[in-house]
Amino acid sequence: MTNVTYGDVLRTPGTTPLYIAAFLARIPMMALPLVLTLLVVEGLDGTYGQAGLVAAAETIGVAFGGPWRGRAIDRTGLRRALVPSIVVLLVAYPLMVVSPFLWLLPLAFVGGLFMTPIHSIVRTSLAARLPTESHRSAFALDAVCAEASFIVGPAAAGAVVALVSPAVGLLSVAGSVAIGLLILWVLNPPTRGLESPPTPALSGGARWMSTDLVLLYLITGASMIAMMAADLGVIAALRELDALAVIGVVYLGWGVASVVGGLVYGARPTSIRPSVLLLTMSVLIIPIGLAQSPVALALAVVPAGLLGAPIMAASSEWIARLTDESVRAEAMGWQAASIKIGGALAAPVVGVAIDHAGAAAGFAVGGGAGALIAVVAVAEQRLRRRDRAAL
Q: Looking at the structure, do residues 334 and 254 belong to the same domain, yes or no?
């Protein structure tokens, strides 16, 4: 098997500018949930429960909008699909700054519904411009860029909110996203290969969703449940240890570990099944709750963190392998939706576990749920493989 290097990927014309544009566009998007929460709690003197409702409205919008916006890219091309997202971005978010709480709910939903699927754009373009043997390295690099955006985005937005105001923070996020989208509009990265015309049956609207794709979306959502359990569990554990001051250090450790893991995975000559990665990460998350000191906690998150970016890269690699170019942006949109839905489901479930039994329960519930879904996925795949062999 050909061993593709990161240099091979980055030397492909147009790939490096695509990574840069996606990184810039994702930084404010990663910060949006934090800014919306602070806008409700500090700007409107609301409660965290109300902030959760706004976040839920935005999440529902993204869950519906991700596949829909991806389908628009497949059918109309990137530039035409970007225009509605840019218009809504420049209208909805400034209105949020001057709106009462009740108006924030529909505005957050509309903003999420028309949110540009950066994930779909980047992964679809990488799949179109690079040969199949380069997808692992390309998707791993994108997962690393997304992790870096997550490290930078919330911290930068939090600083703007603290130094100025939540309103200015939200406007800054909207403006930054608009700049990133305009860069993508100018770049206009291809979403289909020049030598691979769309499959007529698929482009004609035939059903393309398969059992394997459903399992991949389930695995992606479950990985977010497990990782959200780690996020919330870390906060709860540090509160129990009276050491919230070091939360940034612990999160940085997870982020750096994920970046390292993504780079290592992308350099591999062979892929690893997402279900195996999910099972391993979930099992590693469960014992984090046993840490009895901040130092132990910071070290305990590293092994699980190493698998964060690889799961996302591996899932995208398999989605690209199982879909035709004519529906690939929509397929990637469903992956983005599963990420959002998994995170939204995890927050209340893990939160209840922590409220009733402490931080260790949060790690156990989230990790256990991820492990269970991974086992189900592996069992289903083996059962279908055995049935096919019996025919």
A: yes
Q: Which residues contact 291 (CB under 8 A, 6 or more apart)?
A: 237, 297, 299, 300
Count the neighbouring beta carbons within 10 Å of the beta carbon of residue 354: 25
CA-CA distances (angstroms) from residue 223 to 27, 61, 217, 342, 371?
21, 21, 10, 8, 9
Say if residue 263 is in the same domain as residue 379: yes
Both 56 and 38 in one domain: the answer is: yes
124: domain CATH number is 1.20.1250.20
Q: Which two structure tokens, joined as six digits, stand for 44?
A: 């409107």
The reported pLDDT for the residue numbered 387 is 52
Q: Are residues 261 and 378 in the same domain?
A: yes
Average pLDDT over residues 316-343: 82
355 Cβ partners below 8 Å, 6+ apart?
A: none
> Taking all residues of the chain, what is their mean pLDDT, rounded to a whole number?
81
Task: Give the pLDDT of residue 48.
Answer: 62
């754009």: which residue's tokens? 121
> How much is the average pLDDT of 37-64?
78
Query: Are 153 and 25 members of one domain?
Result: yes
- Burial (CB count <10 Å: 0-12, 13-18, 19+), residue 140: buried
- Is the model's pLDDT at 8 over the cut of 90? no
Question: If pLDDT is split at 50, 70 and 90, which confidence band does 288 have?
Answer: very high
Contact of 273 with 223, CB cutoff 8 Å: no
**pTM, two decimal places:** 0.76
Give yes or no: residues 77 and 109 share one domain.
Answer: yes
Q: For residues 169 and 157, what is the distance between their CA atoms, to the nearest angstrom?
A: 6
Domain hosting 13: range is 1-196
Rounded to whole angstroms, the Cα distance separating 91 from 99 reads 12
Q: Is the pLDDT of residue 218 over 80?
A: yes
